[in-house]
UniProtKB/TrEMBL annotation:
<feature type="region of interest" description="Disordered">
    <location>
        <begin position="478"/>
        <end position="553"/>
    </location>
</feature>
<feature type="domain" description="BRCT">
    <location>
        <begin position="105"/>
        <end position="196"/>
    </location>
</feature>
<feature type="region of interest" description="Disordered">
    <location>
        <begin position="578"/>
        <end position="620"/>
    </location>
</feature>
<protein>
    <submittedName>
        <fullName>DNA repair protein Rtt107, putative</fullName>
    </submittedName>
</protein>
<dbReference type="Pfam" id="PF00533">
    <property type="entry name" value="BRCT"/>
</dbReference>
<feature type="domain" description="BRCT">
    <location>
        <begin position="647"/>
        <end position="711"/>
    </location>
</feature>
<dbReference type="GO" id="GO:1990683">
    <property type="term" value="P:DNA double-strand break attachment to nuclear envelope"/>
</dbReference>
<dbReference type="InterPro" id="IPR053036">
    <property type="entry name" value="CellCycle_DNARepair_Reg"/>
</dbReference>
<feature type="domain" description="BRCT">
    <location>
        <begin position="7"/>
        <end position="105"/>
    </location>
</feature>
<dbReference type="GO" id="GO:0006302">
    <property type="term" value="P:double-strand break repair"/>
</dbReference>
<dbReference type="GO" id="GO:0035361">
    <property type="term" value="C:Cul8-RING ubiquitin ligase complex"/>
</dbReference>
<dbReference type="InterPro" id="IPR036420">
    <property type="entry name" value="BRCT_dom_sf"/>
</dbReference>
<dbReference type="Pfam" id="PF12738">
    <property type="entry name" value="PTCB-BRCT"/>
</dbReference>
<dbReference type="GO" id="GO:0005634">
    <property type="term" value="C:nucleus"/>
</dbReference>
<feature type="domain" description="BRCT">
    <location>
        <begin position="342"/>
        <end position="425"/>
    </location>
</feature>
<feature type="compositionally biased region" description="Low complexity">
    <location>
        <begin position="488"/>
        <end position="513"/>
    </location>
</feature>
<feature type="compositionally biased region" description="Acidic residues">
    <location>
        <begin position="602"/>
        <end position="611"/>
    </location>
</feature>
Length: 860
């Protein structure tokens, strides 16, 4: 018996879903989606280009393969979920609507196609990978199923890895390093160098060149100023040539600087695609210009027209497929002076090839810097796809800034020079050429609006009325006052324009509006009025001007309550409520008629008194009884909302959650762990409790005695060879000075990250520096006269220099240099693995085992 027969509502009974038949979604797939939606009680609307996209507000969901379709931004503004087709299958399989975030086509969620499960890897790595994948749009499966796309493992000997091979499941078996590098870069790189059974990052020698893969993201978008006419696509999948321009009104700016012959050719291509070339900005759907300046550019941007450059128009014509001009950096008009702060930079490129190199060269020029073919000492930056080249070695030796292309792209997108010290910009994953992720950065519309077409431009206000050939609807900016009788007075700004009409302002499109709407920005009380279409281009006479004024005054009179409500909301704590007020709100002004309206000022005073009373009655938080550091808490993994709720709950009980080991008085963990938090916190001798302490406090809503939840883990104590209680006693004695005066270096790409080992060393009074070919021998620390050490420890402290390293080829190659420099300084070099530092920190005593040290270079 079906759900309908049983009387229960069907799964999609409340859903109206638009299927966007763009971006190469096959016709058979569209028909299948239509059938599935109808079978489960939903209403399907199929949209096919070049028809205008219907208003997004009427839909509950939009299904699309990508986010690159005309109505995507409008859907986001209206909070309409845009999902991939897999969302429908997942919802039907679960019997309930799936989380749309996990099926979003948003390119920023670069793990959206990933379903990951973990093999035999440490719990800390597992938690980090699961949390990162979920945060970036992916899914985690505790079991190995056919839906799993990636298995994270360290070898092919685990049970899950053997099952993947025996059952031929198709999941890729990758090292955890892949997820780590993707998350640190903020981009999804190719997983082939990390794929078992023969991962290239572990087996390839240091002299083997890094392979370069193709990059489709910048095809047709490598220059803002194309020199050749586009060749329209003749794909058999398209029933008509240039359907992407059908029904579009396109305005070409005078700042393009192209000759009449080329201009005529472009207009002919537009007309062949049933598009229309117009000189009327009010009618235009697309505005093509070269620079981010001028009255027309600002007006088109504020009216939410599609503003792009010739490169973008040529891309549409060539591929006959819609793409947003904000999708690629060089599809949008450039600025004459470039990004502030980039002037004077001399930037060279290394290891980028083909169109990726041309794209970066043009982007450097668009940013306002100089791109040099060769690298010299007067260069300021080197942008490289990987750090294995002669240019990279020379740049480091000369002290130049060596970064990847993300620094350039994101600085251009955010329109400010970002600091090169950000680890994302100095990250070079081994055996990966970052040229494969060039061109994935998009422009931010909010940044563009803030810098190039802000809403409050008084210069453009007067020019609107002076444009005789522009079909632009005028708006009146009103500074309102409401009289006690309910009459509204409008005060307009003075304008040098000779027209007798009231001064106007360029309309600004709000976030919740569609592309074609001219709604005023929610932050500015601008009242829109539109003249009759057939008379807009006629010079207004005295009579028409008077009629316009009367019509505007009538409309202003009608919306006076809305203005009053807006002014009231401005005074509310936290600003104007996003999304407006509901009709059911008790303080919503609903006048009985237009003649009897009262001032909102008394209610404003009442609201102010209510807010003051609320603040007085606000519950006072109890004093902090403990500063708690938590590690390994599975309840919070991938659930930020639950984490925030629990932290607020704990604070109300007197427990402050801290991430700083120096501040923590208590440490909660499920067992003895080797996580940076746990190991660093031990140096401060906190009270160590089981993670159940946190759970019980939350469940019972009270501050419990931590002594009843002391952490007992005999199995791990036996395995690692130390007693937790004894460690904490020694930590109290050491007073964070266990590693004082020890010289510790660390290779840059150590597993676990340099920052983790640096924090552990510093928590114990030591200093850990990054080894980049130099070792500091300055004795700037002083011995503590109260500290005790035997002769062997004192000898180690005074004469030994330690390098924390792994056995990877990139680590091994720096060993001879380290040994040479230490020996030249008259010291003893000791190259040790990470267990040396971890065992010292976890036992809180100096110890030594021969297995800690690499005696000879490892041959590969």
């Amino acid at each position: 018996m079906t759900e309908k027969q049983k009387g229960r509502p069907q799964l999609l009974s409340d859903c109206k879903i638009c299927v966007a038949r763009c971006n190469n979604l096959e016709e058979d797939a569209v028909m299948q989606l239509d059938i599935l939606i109808s079978e489960h009680g939903g209403e399907a609307v199929i949209h096919e280009e070049p028809a205008p996209f219907p208003p997004v507000e009427q839909f509950t969901h939009i299904i699309s393969l990508t986010a690159d379709f005309p109505a995507y931004q409008s859907a986001c503004d209206a909070m309409i979920p845009v999902v991939k087709p897999q969302w429908l299958q997942a919802s039907i399989a679960k019997g309930k609507l799936a989380n749309p975030r996990q099926f979003s086509p948003d390119p920023r969620l670069f793990f959206s196609d990933v379903v990951v499960t973990c093999g035999d890897i440490p719990d800390g790595d597992k938690d980090a990978i699961i949390g990162g994948v979920i945060a970036m749009g992916g899914l985690y499966s505790p079991r190995l199923t056919f839906q799993v796309t990636h298995l994270v493992d360290l070898s092919m000997e685990s049970d899950k890895a053997k099952l993947v091979v025996s059952k031929n499941l198709g999941a890729k078996i990758v090292l955890p390093h892949w997820f780590d590098d993707c998350l640190k870069l903020g981009r999804r790189i190719d997983e082939r160098p990390y794929t078992l059974p023969n991962p290239e990052i572990l087996n390839a020698g240091p002299d083997i060149p890094v392979r370069t893969f193709g990059n489709a993201a910048i095809v047709g978008a490598s220059t803002p100023e194309p020199t050749a006419l586009p060749t329209p696509s003749r794909s058999p999948n398209h029933h008509r040539s240039l359907s992407v321009l059908e029904g579009k009104h396109i305005m070409l700016s005078s700042d393009l600087g192209i000759g009449k012959h080329l201009l005529d050719s472009i207009e002919d291509l537009i007309k062949q695609g049933n598009g229309t070339v117009t000189k009327d900005l009010g009618k235009a759907d697309m505005f093509i210009c070269r620079y981010r300046e001028g009255f027309e550019y600002r007006t088109a941007s504020r009216w939410n027209k599609d503003v792009g450059n010739l490169s973008w128009l040529f891309y549409l014509i060539t591929h006959n497929k819609w793409t947003s001009p904000l999708r690629r950096l060089l599809h949008y008009p450039v600025h004459r002076d470039g990004v502030p702060g980039f002037q004077g930079f001399r930037i060279s490129l290394s290891n980028y090839v083909g169109e990726a190199r041309a794209y970066l060269e043009n982007l450097i020029q668009a940013a306002g810097a100089e791109c040099t073919k060769t690298l010299k000492t007067d260069n300021t930056h080197l942008i490289t796809a990987h750090d294995k080249s002669e240019k990279c070695a020379a740049a480091k030796e000369w002290g130049l800034q060596v970064v990847n292309h993300l620094w350039l792209e994101e600085s251009y997108a955010k329109w400010k020079m970002l600091p090169v010290s950000d680890p994302r910009y100095t990250r070079f994953p081994p055996r990966t050429n970052l040229g494969e992720v060039v061109g994935q950065t998009e422009l931010d519309k909010a940044v563009l609006e803030r810098n190039f077409f802000p809403a409050d431009s008084s210069v453009d206000q007067s020019r609107v009325m002076q444009q005789k050939d522009q079909n632009i609807a005028a708006n009146t900016e009103v500074i309102k006052t409401i009289s006690p009788q309910g009459q509204t007075k409008s005060v307009t700004k003075s304008s040098p324009a000779p027209s007798k009409t009231t001064a106007t302002t360029t309309p600004h499109t709000s976030r919740s509006s569609c592309k074609t709407s001219n709604t005023a920005d929610a932050k500015t009380p601008i009242i829109s009025r539109f003249l009759a279409d057939e008379k807009e281009n006629v010079t207004p006479s005295t009579t028409s001007s008077r009629k316009s004024k009367e019509a505007a005054a009538a409309r202003i009179h009608d919306i006076a309550p809305d203005i009053a409500l807006y002014e009231k909301e401005k005074k509310r704590v936290g600003g104007v409520v996003y999304g407006g007020r509901r009709k059911t709100d008790p303080d919503l002004i609903v006048p009985a008629n237009n003649k009897k309206r009262r001032s909102a000022e008394p209610e404003e005073e009442d609201d102010a008194e209510e807010e003051k009373e609320t603040k007085r009655q606000k519950k006072v938080k109890p004093p902090v009884a403990m500063h708690l550091m938590i590690t390994g808490f599975q309840r919070w993994v991938g659930n930020l909302k639950q984490e925030d709720t629990d932290k607020r709950h704990l604070r109300n009980l007197g427990i402050a959650i801290t991430q700083d080991a120096k501040k923590c008085t208590h440490l909660a963990a499920p067992s003895i762990l080797r996580t940076p938090k746990f190991v660093s916190a031990l140096a401060y001798a906190p009270v160590v409790v089981h993670i159940d302490y946190v759970t019980e406090c939350l469940a019972k809503d009270e501050l419990l005695d931590p002594s009843d939840f002391a952490l007992v883990d005999k199995i791990t104590e036996k395995k690692v060879g130390f007693n937790l209680a004894a460690t904490l006693e020694r930590a109290k004695t050491n007073k964070n000075k266990l590693l004082r005066d020890y010289r510790i270096c660390c290779v840059e790409t150590i597993r676990g990250g340099f920052d983790a080992f640096k924090s552990i060393a510093e928590a114990n009074g030591g200093e850990c520096t990054l080894f980049r070919g130099r070792v500091s021998m300055n004795d700037h620390r002083r011995r503590d006269p109260d500290s005790e050490s035997d002769e062997e420890e004192d000898h180690l402290m005074k004469n030994d220099v330690f390098l924390v390293s792994g056995e990877e080829p990139e680590h091994v190659k720096v060993w001879p240099r380290f040994r040479q420099m230490v020996l030249e300084a008259g010291k003893t070099p000791r190259i040790v693995n990470v267990n040396w530092l971890l065992d010292i920190a976890m036992s809180q005593e100096i110890g030594w085992k021969d297995e800690y040290e690499y005696k000879t270079d490892v041959a590969f």
